[in-house]
Amino acid sequence: MLKSLKIENFRCFPSFEMQQLGRLNLIVGTNNSGKTSILEAIQLLTCQSHLEVLQILKDTMTARDEYISDENGEYELDIRHLFYDRMIQENSEFSIESYPNYFKDIRLYLTHIRDNKLISSGALETLITSDERDLLPDLIGLELNIERRSNLPRKLTLPLSSDDRLSSSHIKGFRRDPRNLSAKTQFIGLSSLTTDTTIQLWNQVVLTVEEKLVTKALQILEPNITRIAALGFERSRQNNSRVLVQLANEQRIPIGSMGDGIWRILGIALAIVNAKDGVLLVDEIDTGLHFTVMSDMWKMLWETAKRLNVQIFATTHSNDCWQSLADIANAENPSEDGITIHRIEKGKPNSIVFTERQIAIAAERNIEVR
User: Coil, strand or helix: which one is 74?
Assistant: First the structure.
């Protein structure tokens, strides 16, 4: 479990630290203070491989529209947005670290290309064969180095284009294998999970003890839900995957017809049970959820996180969201693995930490923590 987080030169942070991290951590702050960037930093830090780093860079940067595309569907990631002040040159770098170092620290930095090799001779992972490499022209410019440090440095090196962007050709073919959903980190963004991703996660828990937990989570919003089913099939090359629920009166209803809140709570529940012994990241966790269900949602997450050894990081702007968390914090004995709220303030190098006892007092006395 991460006890602290240190970010250097990443997105809006020249230097930033979070201490006293607990099992459940709610991140608050004004707009554009860097809350989502903290989740992205944790996601990169907890990657299991260089290829997973590339996939996450693709997902997060395309979601932020930080890419340039052409009429052929090819695109390039504009990596300058990853670096503080969006300025890059040779020796620019950002790093993300944690103490104690249960996860590998990660560092991305730029150097000048020395020759026409796409992958440096010291790399342990290869994206392009030597035959393919020989067909490419000499390259002049910068290269991106991805280094994950453990006992020994492990580095992957990729060339940037003449405009200092990372081509999609280096990422294509390395999409996340849908059969390999045992990743230690699950990320829920502002929008709901796609139907395909929902079905993939559901297939990992169907006919297990966790299936009942997911159904129970949906009952927070709709007590009449008794079962969930996922249907996935193809017809005329069109994907017709669907998620259905059964009500107490035995009606079978597409889950999409029950509103955004049901999709949100389903995604969160599926993500946490698939993050066993890992990390759950949720951006704007209260999106689509009414304040009356927040306490039950926190209770579900807290109990599941303790049982499955999951560490949770979530963001919010909502007053109801953090005050509902105070109900759980007030019921817990202060502990090293407990509940924290971290307030992020622009330009400040450290988060302001509220422990369980402080959260409970703030809620009781109506003290603003956001």
Answer: coil
Q: How confident is the model at residue 359 (pLDDT cuts 50, 70, 90)?
A: confident
**Cis peptide bond prior to 100, omega within 30° of 0:** yes
How many residues would you count in the chain?
A: 370
**What is the full DSSP assignment across 76-143?**
EE-GGGGBGGG---TT-EEEEE-SS-SS-EEEEEEEE--SS-SS-TT-SS-SS-HHHHHTSPP--SEE
Give per-residue pLDDT as tens, 277-287: 999 999 999 99
Q: Which two tokens stand for residue 209?
A: 């003890």
* CA dist 351 → 15, 323, 362 (Å): 11, 19, 17
Sign of CA dihedral 175, 70, 32, 366: negative
pTM reported for the whole predicted model: 0.84
110 touches 90 (CB < 8 A): yes
In 3D space, the residue among 74, 42, 68, 35 whose CA is nearest the CA of residue 56 turns out to be: 42
